[in-house]
Amino acid sequence: MRGTQNRYQKNCEGSRLNIDFENSDDVAVLTLRGRFDSDKSRGLVRSEVTRLIGDGTKLFVIDFSDVPYCDSAGTGELITVFRSLQNAGGAMAIVGPCERVHRLWRNVRLLAVFNIFEDVEEARAFVRQPKPVRTTNQEKAQTPLAGI
């Protein structure tokens, strides 16, 4: 998809989470707006990422700048997305979580797993970096979240 740009907004009826999507130069940017919790927004981000992986996208930036709240279910969904991208040979970066969300991720020790950046361009540059190819199960076991 290099050189193309696609945009759309998904307003999920009954949900408190909206997803704006932009795909430019092989990097999908999902901008989340609203609460990312176990209420009616469960599974929305995972389904969007799964759909995009199926379309060939493997590089993702998830912008949390407009997410005031993320509970353990939202965090669990993000871990699932991270693992799916790892398994597909992709990469994910997160932009701008608020202090409340950052504190949650720090408390559950995910700051060492999630790649968090201040702005979208910095995150785009990170996901575009070449990744080392894992060739053995032992090397895969040494990756973050391998035991989850």
Describe this structure in words.
- The chain is α/β, with parallel strands linked by helices and 148 residues long.
- The protein has a single domain (5-141), classed as STAS domain (Transcription Regulator spoIIAA), CATH 3.30.750.
- It contains five helices and six strands.
- The chain has helices at 44-54, 72-87, 99-107, 120-128, 137-141; strands spanning 5-11, 17-24, 27-34, 59-66, 91-95, 116-117.
- The protein has a six-stranded mixed β-sheet with strand order 1-2-3-4-5-6, with helices on both faces.
- α1 (44-54) links the parallel β3 (27-34) and β4 (59-66).
- α1 runs parallel beside α2 (72-87).
- The chain is globular, with a radius of gyration of 15 Å.
Average predicted confidence as pLDDT: 81
Instruction: Indicate the CATH class.
Output: Alpha Beta
> What is the fold-level CATH name, i.e. the topology?
Transcription Regulator spoIIAA
- The domain tally reads 1
Spans with pLDDT under 50 lasting ≥5 residues? Answer: 1-14
